[in-house]
Every structure is written in structure tokens, then in C-alpha cells.
Amino acid sequence: MNGAITDFLIVADQIFILVLLIAAGYVAVSAKIVDPRATRGLSGLLINITIPALIVASMQVPFTPERLAGAEILVLATGMLYVFSFALAWAVSKAMRVPAAEEGVLQFAIVFGNVGFMGFPVALTLFGEESLFYVAIFNLFFNVLVFSVGIAMLTEGRGKGFDPRLLANPGIAASVVGFALFLGSVEIPGPFIDSIELLGGVTTPLAMIIVGAMVATFPARE
User: Fold this and answer.
1) pLDDT digits (tens, 9 = 90+) for 93-117
2) Overall domain count for the chain
3) Do residues 56 and 177 make contact, with C-beta atoms less than 8 angstroms apart?
4) Domain assignment present for 24
5) Using one digit for the tens of pLDDT, what is the confidence trace for 181-200?
């Protein structure tokens, strides 16, 4: 019982840290220290620079049979998760009888979570750096699906087909490169990996501050 309470307090402490970072972003915009329009540029920095850097850095780990086996189990579990999620999304959209134009949006919201933006900071805070290796692998499948099936869901019936160029984005590229370096046991030289790790380390505080800044743009009662 005491162990469970201790674990709960540890998790609560880590979550509270994230809440404080969100509060910092909220205060920064509310007090007009930061222009709310800046969140768009900061989001671009996060998605295109710091998260890819974090992905590559998290995969700079020694190759071991145990870690590879863990990755294989994760791939299988990820496949099962998305099969279930797509089936659930289809069933819910039909049961709710939403208009055809809104079906894809509802299905997208059910299947795809905020893995890239919030997933990395939360996993890092709760489970430590070791978890980021597996989060990066999951993120690869997430990105491929969200930029293919996800786009198809959102544009269904609007005459827009899937554009393969959407898959050429920093998140997918970083995941592929990082995993290839892991399989080949290739270590990035000191000055470069140090810079990449520093950039990746910005991800958690930056993501939470952006969330807080976005929240501050809405009326408090809402």
C-alpha cells in the first residue's frame, strides 16, 4: 500500500511540473510578455526541429537483443492498437449517425492522439529517457498513418487525394534515421550529438509553454 502511494506521489509530482510549465506559458501571454501569434512559430520550431532532435538523440542507445525484442513487441502492439482504434472509430461514427461530412473528423479524433506534441514530454517526465526510444518507434507509425489515412479521413469527399510528399517530414525522417543508426550501432560524433541532445532537451518545456500560451488565447470562462 505504501509503495502504491509513493508511486502515485512521484507521478503526481512529475505531472505538477508539467502543469507549472503550462502555467508559465499562460502567464506569459496573459501578461503580454509573449505575443500569442508567436505560438505558431514556436510550434513550427517544436515539430520541425526539437522533436526530431529528441527522436534521434533517444535512439542513440547501444544495440542489444533485449531492446530489439522490445521494439518488435511494440510494433506488434502498435498494429493491434490501430486495428482496434480504426474499428472503434468506424463503429462510433456509425452509432452516433453524424453527417457524412463530419464522419472523417470524428474518426480522426478517436484514432489519433497528440502523440508528437504531448507524447514525448509526458513519456520523458513519467518514464525517463529510456522510454523515448520506444516512443520514437511508435511515433514513426503514428506519423505514417496520420499523414496518409488521417489526411484521407479529413479530406474525404472534398476531391483531395493523398499526397505522398506529406510523408517527407522531419518527424518521420528522424525516426527512420535514428532507428537505422541504432540497428547499425552507429554513434554520432561528440559535438554533433551534444548539440542534438541540447535541442531535444528543449522539447518538454517548450511544448508545455506553447500549450499554456494557446490556452491563454481563449476566454477564461470557456
Assistant:
1) 888 888 877 888 888 989 988 777 7
2) 1
3) yes
4) yes
5) 998 989 999 899 999 999 99
Has residue 114 been placed in a domain?
A: yes
Spatial distance between the Cα atoms of 8 and 16, rounded to a whole number of angstroms: 12
DSSP 161-175: ---GGGG-SHHHHHH
Q: What is the DSSP letter of 189?
A: P
The closest of 34, 31, 70, 47 to 119, measured between CA atoms, is 47
**Could you give the residue ranges of the DSSP H alpha helices within the chain?**
2-30, 38-45, 51-58, 65-96, 100-111, 120-127, 130-146, 149-155, 170-183, 190-201, 203-215
Decide if 221 is inside a domain: no
| Cβ pair 94, 184 in contact under 8 A | no
Confidence (pTM): 0.81
What domain range includes position 38? 2-215
